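To: structure desk
From: M.T.
Subject: fold request, one chain
Message: Could you run this one when you get a chance? Sequence is below, nothing fancy, just the single chain.
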Amino acid sequence: MSPDVTPAKLELSHVTKTFFPYSVNERVALDDFCLSLADGDFVTVIGSNGAGKSTLLSVVAGVYRPDKGRLSIDGIDVTGWTEQAKARHVGRVFQDPMAGTAADLTVEENMAVAAYRGRRRGLGRAVSRPKREHFREELSVMGLGLEDRLTTKVGYLSGGQRQALSLIMAVFSRPSILLLDEHTAALDPARAELITRITRQEVASHHLTTLMVTHNMDQALRLGNRLVLMHEGRIQLELSGQTKADASVDELLAQFAERTGQQASDRSLLA
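Reply: Done. Structure tokens follow.
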């Protein structure tokens, strides 16, 4: 690569991931998959059940290692890195609000864990007065009052509050890549809209390179600067810029049918 060329923030090159190979249950989740994200890209990912969306995020996070292909972050080959090794570079928010936080720890203790993700540090040093003020500042942008509940155990928070906290924790250390895995799907419409607002705010404020899987086609069109539609482990359609801004759900469904030969409703495509 020329020294004048900026490496992609995230690049998956010809990545394949197969589960239960050489068995009757063999399933190819990612099939020679290629995707490149530049610095600051916000890519939303939609697709049918079993399209490989969550597997994609898990490969990027290091939960799964590709069978073939290459994965790089900031131009560094991280294909064989473990989830722990990638933790300082990748933040992730899951669908389940309970998955991203520790219920028995306080809000500030959870924030301390996030602050030192991927590092070997003790909680005692992490929850210092300067850190506590930093936590309060970060939490205040959500408008949920969590900055005044630093010593409250997270188990006492609502699902929406825990998911908002999970999001702030994921972006706290300014990861190279932010992964959002259907992170509003388990919330009621009002709380889902709240988390969507905070997501847009945090990604823009910190210029985060983001890959978001969603079951909500309208959300996929509203958020981000790029959209990819997956089917059977491959990208079938990609929209960006004004083309994405002008697209509708009906047009996406028509494109899905044209490229896959399958008719789909909004519900069946995103089940």
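Reply (cont.): The radius of gyration is 19 Å. Let me know if you need anything else for the meeting.
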